[in-house]
Amino acid sequence: MKARKVRQSCLPFALSILMSATFSAHAENATDSASLIAKGKYLAIAADCGACHTAPDHGAAMSGGYIISSPLGNIVSSNITPSKTAGIGDYTEQDFARAVREGINKQGQHLYPAMPYTSYAKITDSDIHALYTYFMHGVKADDNVPAPTNLPFPFNIRSSMFFWNMLFADAKPFTPAADKSAEINRGDYLVNALAHCDTCHTPRNALMGQNNDQALSGGSLGSWYAPNITPDKQAGIGNWSDAEIAQYLKTGHVAGKAQAAGPMAEAVEHSLQYLSDDDIQAMVAYLRQVPAVSQPVSQARDNIGQPATSEALQRAVKDPDAGWKVYSSTCANCHQADGSGNTIYPSLFHNTTTGAAQADNLIATIVYGVHRQVDGKDIDMPGFGPDALFTDRLTDQQIADVSNYVLKNFGNAELNVTADQVKTVREGGERPLIARLAQPAVWGGAAIVVIILLVLLVSLSRRGKKHGA
């Protein structure tokens, strides 16, 4: 009986130990899960998923419907919430990894590379796991069904992406360079994988594949142009200090140098401003040591120009410059008559947009305006293109005129903008060769499919010979 009493008296104690251990395990699992979701959220922000997968007019995060303009037509982003009817709720982690890294969804359909899977292919297994956990458990399910993407023939044949991927996609995960510091490797991972800076800032060939021999040396983005961000002192950002590069990434603005607009403004607003200081510094460190790519420019674009002295002269002449008339009535109130700007609106001289070797970003800024929200504050400049208020709207010729006035007085005076250039920017930019060839009026029907396949096969053959050498 005595032994039995001892066993009975030990039972509550044993149960309390077991319950305590179970509770601790649950608490630990909950903590681990929350930590993993938080990590996935940070990675999703670094990858800028929300910028493309959240439509301004719908509101629900990651529910798709955002229209991405491409040279081949408009691409509508998909719903990537855990909705089982409209999103990725029935994706396994393997399905998710394949979509992110290879651009192939659960149904086996090829995604268009507006989704930068060519960069995301480098994302590590552990980060894929964290991202999957976040999207499945940290994002609210939404049943919004975005409109389908309907590109013109032959680009509506998604299976044709198989050949493009053979040429230009590389599914190898990121491998740290043994001869580089941990900081530079982290910057490499951010620039070329998560933040996919290379996707926009690297030029593309006739088939829209990245020309990685000229990595980060600048590339066309339809209406906009992503500039050279290699450390060349004239063509790139070699004359920027570390602090200036970091400030630009976090805020989109460096007085007397640059301000973010278009796709870069979106990257700052939705992604870069939220990255840790350590990650921003890692990106700076990596960009500092990539191969500098020089281009035929005489001086850095942010060193060009000076205050204008033409105001009095233009007012005195009988027939003033057409561009000055637009500038005086539309721009001078904010940017000042001499172009010096103020605390809100930037100077138009010593400005990377007006001093650039191409006028795309100046034209696009006038057509579309500027918007970014940083640290809860809106930075806005209205657009004056076809979507502007009727009283603010400028014709293509007026935009060309004011662009030329700004360039001649504040920036790169060697450039001359025409109304046709403005029209091209307004319509989405210069179309690449592959898009021009696909126009029915040029070739028509099945012939273009044959030509594109032949070009792909020849390119693939050359690639194979190069790799085998």
Structural account:
There is one protein chain. The protein has 469 residues and is mainly alpha-helical. It has 18 helices and eight strands. The strands form four sheets. It has a two-stranded antiparallel sheet. A two-stranded antiparallel ribbon has the order 3-4. Helix 13 (322-335) packs across helix 15 (396-410) and helix 15 packs across helix 16. It is globular.
Largest sheet, order of strands side by side? Answer: 1-2
Shape: globular
Sheet having the most strands: 2 strands, antiparallel
Order of helix and strand elements from N to C terminus: HHEEHHHHHHEEHEEHHHHHEEHHHH
Proportion of residues in β-strands: 5-15%
Number of strands: 8
Supply Rg: 26 Å
Low-confidence stretches: 1-13, 464-469
> Averaged pLDDT, please?
86
Query: How far is the first residue's CA from the last residue's CA?
Result: 87 Å
Total number of helices: 18
The proportion of residues forming helix, as a percent range, comes to 40-55%
> Structural class of the secondary elements?
mainly alpha
